[in-house]
Specification:
The chain is mainly alpha-helical. It has 14 helices and no strands. Helix 1 crosses helix 13 and helix 4 packs antiparallel against helix 8.
Length: 304
């Protein structure tokens, strides 16, 4: 007897392929930001703005929210969009000063920051696996930032901007925690993105950046790879996997970003750099596993 279609091997393979392709597409985002001849924050404006019509098209095909969307919820989503815009602003500025592998790791530190927030909010000490994540994160971050300081103080500043981006993204997730239970994934992403677009433009102008590019292809590629393919593949894939699998797939991002940095910009990694990245990446995986019971996972919890 032929197995049901939903259990056919090719259909079981699709979520895994989507997860890997989504992470690979997101990993190329920092490379396109470097190539853009607009400012870095302006690149974030175009990343979200160019993708916004497609996001709303996807949102229009989702079922209506299970509960009425109140004005308070819309304001909450708008506030989350502001945090998302500030997160992208900080991350894109940091990309210009540090190595692409560092940017991918520190930019995705939201899971670790949420875990630290949970210790404070719940007034409890870490458990054994969480202690391991804390120690690995502190060790990895210390190695990477120390190596950045050896290269240049600007490189260290870039790491700090990317770490600030992870902090802002954790705030975005916390703000939208209740909305994620009531609003479908594409609606939430499109509404919060719409709120963030004007913020990105204002920050770019205040930063004195050139907004209108001469060469459009890096910005179009950034919007397609990060906002549509990356986010789109993850919206489809994340519901099929445990936090451990998601965390392990996340490790492809710094690996691909580091490879792009080496090939395009000559950013070579030594054994100590690899150790620091391995420690911090392992901490991210452990943080996602430890956060499984806190319901912090959503369809858009991977930043880059």
């Amino acid at each position: 007897m032929k197995p049901p279609e939903e259990f056919a091997p090719r259909h079981r393979f699709l979520p895994l392929a989507a997860l890997l392709v989504g992470n690979a597409a997101l990993a190329l985002g920092p490379w396109f930001v470097r190539l853009a001849d607009s400012g870095p924050v302006a690149a974030g404006f175009w990343r979200v703005g160019l993708a916004l019509p497609v996001l709303f098209l996807f949102a229009s095909r989702e079922p209506a929210p299970a509960v009425p969307v109140t004005r308070r919820m819309l304001l909450t989503i708008a506030a989350g969009g502001v945090f998302f815009a500030l997160d992208l602003s900080s991350w894109h500025v940091g990309i210009g000063y540090t190595r692409l592998g560092n940017a991918a790791l520190f930019g995705n530190s939201g899971s670790l920051i949420l875990m630290f927030w949970g210790f404070v909010a719940w007034a409890r000490w870490p458990k054994a696996r969480e202690w391991l994540a804390v120690l690995a994160a502190l060790g990895g971050a210390a190695i990477l930032m120390g190596r950045s300081f050896e290269v240049s103080t600007q490189t260290l500043v870039g790491d700090l901007f990317c770490l600030l981006a992870g902090l802002l993204y954790a705030g975005y997730l916390l703000i939208l925690q209740d909305a994620r239970r009531a609003v479908t994934s594409w609606r939430l992403l499109s509404w919060s993105s719409a709120a963030g677009v004007p913020v990105l433009l204002i920050v770019a102008l205040l930063h004195g950046e050139p907004v209108w590019p001469h060469d459009w292809w890096p910005l179009v590629a950034l919007a397609i790879s990060s906002q549509l393919i990356g986010q789109g593949m993850l919206v489809y894939a994340l519901r099929h996997f445990s936090p451990l699998a998601i965390g392990l797939a996340l490790l492809t991002q710094p690996a691909i970003a580091s490879l792009a940095g080496w090939l395009a910009f000559g950013e070579r990694l030594g054994p100590i750099d690899v150790l620091g990245m391995a420690l911090l990446a392992g901490a991210l995986v452990l943080a996602r596993v430890a956060g499984e019971s806190t319901d912090t996972k959503s369809a858009d919890t991977t930043l880059a």
